[in-house]
Amino acid sequence: MTNQSVRVxxxxxxxxxxxxxxxxxxxxxxxxxQTGMNIEIARILVQDxxxxxxxxxxxxxxxxxxxxxxxxxxxxxxxxxxxGVERTREHILAALQQGKHVVTANKDLMAVHGxxxxxxxxxxGCDLFYEASVAGGIPILRALVEGFSSDRITKMMGxxxxxxNYILTKMSQEGGNYEDVLKEAQELxxxxxxxxxxxxxxxxxxxxxxxxxxxxxxxxxxxxxxxxGMENVTLEDIEYAEQLGYTIKLIGIAKQDDNLIEVSVEPTxxxxxxxxxSVHGVFNAVYVYGEAVGETMFYGPGAGELPTANAVxxxxxxxxxxxxxxxxxxxxxxxxxxxxxxxxxxxxxxxFMRLLVDDQSGVLAQITQKLAGYDVSIEQVIxxxxxxxxxxxxIIVTHQSSKKGIQEVLSELEKLEHIEEIKSYYRVxxxx
Length: 432
Ligand SMILES: NC(=O)C1=CN([C@@H]2O[C@H](COP(=O)(O)OP(=O)(O)OC[C@H]3O[C@@H](n4cnc5c(N)ncnc54)[C@H](OP(=O)(O)O)[C@@H]3O)[C@@H](O)[C@H]2O)C=CC1
Ligand SMILES: N[C@@H](CC=O)C(=O)O
What we know:
- The chain is an alpha/beta fold and 432 residues long.
- It has helices at 15-26, 28-35, 67-70, 86-97, 107-123, 140-147, 162-174, 178-187, 196-199, 202-216, 235-244, 305-325, 363-372, 403-413, and strands spanning 4-11, 37-45, 62-63, 77-80, 101-104, 128-129, 153-159, 226-227, 246-257, 260-271, 283-290, 294-301, 340-341, 348-358, 378-385, 391-398, 401-402, 419-429.
- The protein binds NADPH dihydro-nicotinamide-adenine-dinucleotide phosphate and ligand LTNE7NMQ.
């Protein structure tokens, strides 16, 4: 008996689409053994049909007309790897309304319209999977939804953007120049079409919002993620951090204490002993703490052609297995918990600050007194001479302090007569 075919409409043939095509073609035999069906890429949507591709694909497969995939009754599954938000949302809604299953790598879309699209999928008995949207090749979404279904997650911490981690790694290990390293990351296919989303933390914020929705069972909105990028991290900060035993990483943190949630993305100083501090280059890692299981960590490549394609094609395999069993669109659980967000006075961390001050006695006492007014106390302080005459640099690491207290204290310090400049400040995580 010959296997039935599943026909796939591939939207996009860039970095990820090329990987998807390669895997489906080269693993055809394995995929059909696992699913009992032949997976056939029946049509490919691109912008420019004449563009030279890096692999040989029959030219007849290419189209620039989305309807030739969306309206074709013979196409069973849409794999969306073209990016974009509003127009892509419409395409995916149209696909689901036609009863087509959808696999997407698009976190920009899922972070904003995920709730609506998943509802539409359920309404039409369709699968909508998006494993590749968070941490590229790491199967973290399936782990959260299935592997942690009986646990209660209280903390997730992650390096979830490969491009920014690649840049920070090159800066700290080789002293690389920011612009040159970004260009390299773009050439390697890691960066977004608009790389400001990678540098500015927005890409990581989208992923943290997806992780929080699935991990905490609440409908997390993207604008509820407090987001700061890594564009202002300097080689000087990296060197200071190293001297104090820290590494600077762009970290997403999602915590749930007593049903109160905080989610943020920001450049953070991690103690060298912290497991995330040794995640380098394009690698990502997501640390998940479950009340029952305790500490776990998921590690792997966060971007790039084949790692991301592996996540996409694995979703496709699940869709096809579900088709074979006739169970598509079942088993997806919508957020069911009430969401309560922490206020800034309820969010606690240690902080690092680097200040340029007048080099005279009494400055530190003045600063210590100001900090005490906001319940911020000093754990460690280092004073270094500065090349400017009569100036010094003060490096301060605080004890656990509220985010509100730190924000207020920073704006007060700016006003002090003997403080020339607040050079930088970072959240500090020791892993304790
Ligand atoms: N790159 C990565 O490592 C990862 C990417 N992702 C996500 O995967 C998706 C794809 O990323 P990536 O492969 O890097 O993107 P690319 O820019 O490399 O490729 C985009 C593809 O989509 C096509 N395309 C774009 N817009 C349109 C349009 N309006 N109509 C028709 N075709 C269009 C392009 O056509 P043409 O070739 O003719 O220009 C191209 O083939 C994005 O959502 C991204 O965020 C997720 C995880 C990792
Ligand atoms: N630009 C993203 C790609 C994967 O999501 C990244 O660098 O992580």
